[in-house]
Specification:
By secondary structure, this protein is α+β, with helices and mostly antiparallel strands. It contains 4 helices and 4 strands, in the order ααααββββ. The chain has a domain of 110 residues: Nuclear Transport Factor 2, Chain: A (Roll). The chain has a 4-stranded antiparallel β-sheet, with helices on one face.
């Protein structure tokens, strides 16, 4: 280990201070990840309509619907969609959706047989340990848009989606 001798002159003290500052800056520069130097990418054109000021429950619902729509739109995405349901939905809701799907021959999360072109999540009410969001699903082409609306409830205690009504 190198021992620094106590500097007696102000010039020596400045030199030691500059050396220590340079060493600290070099250490800090080496610790910065390479990804920090990459320029930020533009947001995808079909980004879901939610903002950082949304409640955490609304963000969770938006994350779920964005991931779920990507999974069911992908070829062979059924296993991923099932995994997403297991992660985001309560067991009781998953059972309810299975019954609804058997009866209606449609996807219970979307309340439809097809995949929508887009979605938007807006906050609604919260209270009694739950928060509600409104999910607007967008259908059709740009010239002929139609919308369906779902009410989604999230349990604040578990952080999972516990009801979907449409």
């Amino acid at each position: 280990m190198t021992r620094l001798r106590a500097a007696r002159r102000p010039r020596d003290r400045r030199l030691i201070g500059r050396t220590l500052l340079a060493a600290a800056l070099l250490t800090a520069v080496a610790a910065v990840p390479a990804t920090a130097a990459v320029a930020p990418r533009a947001a995808p054109a079909a980004a879901p309509a939610h903002s950082e000021r949304d409640a955490p429950g609304d963000q969770l619902v938006a994350h779920f619907y964005g991931s779920y729509l990507d999974a069911i739109a992908a070829e062979g995405g059924g296993k991923l969609a099932t995994t997403l349901r297991s992660f985001y939905l309560t067991p009781a809701l998953r059972s309810e959706l299975k019954r609804w799907e058997a009866k209606n021959h449609a996807d219970g999360v979307l309340r439809a047989q097809d995949v929508p072109a887009g979605f938007r999540v807006t906050p609604s009410d919260s209270g009694a340990g739950h928060t509600w969001s409104t999910v607007r699903l967008t259908w059709g082409t740009t010239a002929h848009r139609t919308y369906t609306y779902l009410t989604v409830r999230q349990d604040l205690g578990t952080g999972k989606i516990s009801a979907i009504r449409g």
